[in-house]
Amino acid sequence: PVLVVDFGAQYAQLIARRVREAGVYSEIVPHTATAADIAAKNPVALILSGGPSSVYEAGAPQLDPAVFELGVPTLGICYGFQVMAKALGGEVANTGLREYGATAAMIAGDGGVLLGGQPAAQNVWMSHGDQVSQAPAGFEVLAKTPATPVAAFGDAQRCFYGVQWHPEVRHTDHGQEVIENFLHKAAGLDASWNSDSVIAEQVERIRAQVGDARVISALSGGVDSAVSTALVHKAIGDQLTAVFVDHGLLRAGEREQVEQDYVASTGVRLITVDAADTFLGHLEGVTDPEAKRKIIGREFIRAFEKVQRELVAEAAASGDAPIKFLVQGTLYPDVVESGGGAGTANIKSHHNVGGLPDDLDFALIEPLRTLFKDEVRAIGRELGIPEAIVGRQPFPGPGLGIRIIGEVTRDRLEILRAADAIARAELTAAGLDGEIWQCPVVLLADVHSVGVQGDHRTYGHPIVLRPVSSEDAMTADWTRLPYDVLSKISNRITNEVRDVNRVVLDVTSKPPGTIEWE
Ligand code: XMP
Q1: What's the pLDDT score for residue 356?
Q2: Is 168 a catalytic residue?
Q3: Which one, of 265, 264, 219, 261, lies nearest residue 240 by Cα?
Q4: Ligand 1 mutation target, pool 442, 472, 515, most atoms within 8 A of CB
Q5: Is 166 among the residues known to form the active site?
Q6: What is the pLDDT of residue 107?
């Protein structure tokens, strides 16, 4: 793989994604990895990421200097560029000059393999205080900015390159080109990594792992479980049984999508557990959000374990191979954030409802463990999973249960489901799905407001629209939806959904507001 060395900013994952977009497989390693650790992974190239520190600060993240003796093509970015300059004998200075945001970079000389052929002046995105004041011996300066004498450098002999700016962000004009030039032209790597190759490789691995044992999988209706299940099914067919727990907190049409469209397109053998009564029974009288989450999480596990016991007993009675494996839709960011990557501050929260306990007596199959979300979607499309599932926006495991503020009842679920279906339909019709990350629709069930409909006083509930734009759900901003679309959603909801006489818009960013209301 190409190894992205993480110096502790948010950029390592983005860089790893851009490398994969260039058709080369990448993984993230922490900057604390030694040269031996790195060599053991057989890297075909290294990329040193940006980071929050100054190379001269006490405790600033360092890199084992022996890494530069491995003979591996290396690209340093921002902080990684400075680490490289310092380690190889150049000079990094704190001049008090800072560059943040859009900056004009001027190519020096022919720009080398990294920048050759690109416009002489280009917009790049910067974020640094220190600067490289002198390139190490053997390096050629490839770009400058008004404030930075060495904004990019290269040593073609050793295949070492660096840029002060962030080529991985979209605000940088020729960023992806810089990354591709490094990978394809400088390091000579082919663009051969794509969804097809991932599917073929995973299918083989899963077959080898499973043998003739049987496997179960929990489907949630979301993208990750849908794709991991379909991938395992492609590998082992009916050795797999998928279990879908309908907790009664799904949105309109979701169960049908799984039971009909998903099954028809993948051929997965599916058992649906109708657990709505049980869930709603346990939720009776409960209004505290954390209490709701805990109940829903607990009941999900109970429902799943019940089916699992039945399947195990069935296999034993019929002399079938035993069930030994459980499919899990873990993604690469979860792996990196739970310690597989660097010393990045752990901002990730509590959201593991829908997750299963780890004391289940099964080994895990995690076919998406090395993948990012957009890659998972591409594979899902390749596997023929319907767009309505593969393109689905995030939806929380506890479902509509945490979008009814107040007690969850069947009646309230019906109201919320109807309002949510209208909002979703109108956003899709207006072509806005790509612009919003997700749009929770929330029923303020314990709030009443006065209205007037057809000359009558009404006393109904408000519905909240919470459209947000985000990259990763860690931070978000409220989406500036067009007024005519908001107006249409509002009109339709107040006209078509009983007991709702008011629609309000949530205009809070995250932080301070979370995306969900509970
Ligand atoms: P918050 O509300 O914390 O949500 O800003 C961030 C993202 O996580 C989703 N979310 C959940 N997803 N189980 C999940 O699978 C959960 O319990 C859960 N709670 C929130 C939320 O929809 C948003 O995308």
Answers
A1: 62
A2: yes
A3: 219
A4: 515
A5: yes
A6: 97
Residue ranges, comma separated, of all CATH 3.30.300.10 domains in the chain are 409-505
* Ligand 1 lined by 318 (C-beta under 6 Å): no
Please pick, among 21, 27, 99, 168, the residue that the annotation labels catalytic: 168
Domain with CATH 3.40.50.880 in the chain: 2-186
pLDDT for 339: 58
* Parts of the chain belonging to CATH 3.40.50.620: 195-390
* Residue closest by Cα to atom 10 of ligand 1: 396
Q: Which residues of the chain have pLDDT under 50?
A: 340-354
The domain made up of 2-186 has a fold known as Rossmann fold (3.40.50)
Angle between helices 289-318 and 276-283 (to 10 degrees): 150
Tokens of 285: 């009288």
How many whole angstroms from 166 Cα to the centroid of ligand 1? 29
Of the residues 21, 78, 375, 518, only one is catalytic, namely: 78
User: What's the 429 CA to ligand 1 centre distance in angstroms?
Assistant: 25
pLDDT of residue 347: 29
Buried b / exposed e over 251-284, threshold 16 CB at 10 Å, is bbebbebbeebbbeebebebebbebbebbbebbe
Question: With a 6 A CB cut-off, is 510 part of the ligand 1 pocket?
Answer: yes
Q: Ligand 1: does its nearest atom lie under 6 Å from the Cβ of 398?
A: yes
Residue 399 Cβ < 6 Å to ligand 1: no
pLDDT for 242 equals 97
Q: What share of the chain is helix, strand, coil (3-state, %, to 5)?
A: 35, 20, 40
pLDDT of residue 38: 97
Query: 226 labelled as ligand-binding?
Result: yes
Among residues 312, 117, 308, 310, which one has the least CA distance to residue 217?
Answer: 308
Whole-number Å distance, alpha carbon 66 to ligand 1 midpoint, is 42
Annotated catalytic, 171? no
The answer, yes or no, to whether any atom of ligand 1 lies below 6 A from the CB of 181, is no
Looking at this protein, which amino acid is placed at residue 109?
A: G
Q: How far is CA 444 from CA 409, 481, 485, in A?
A: 13, 21, 22
Question: In angstroms, rounded to a whole number, what is the distance separating the alpha carbons of residues 5 and 27?
Answer: 9
Tell me the pTM: 0.84
Rounded CA separation 108/152 (Å): 9
Candidates 3.30.1330.10, 2.40.50.140, 3.40.50.620, 3.30.830.10; CATH matching 195-390:
3.40.50.620
Identify the pLDDT of residue 97.
Answer: 79
Which residues lie across from 2 on neighbouring strands? Answer: 26, 45
> How is domain 409-505 classified at the architecture level of CATH?
2-Layer Sandwich (3.30)
Contact criterion met (CB below 8 Å) for 322 and 266: no
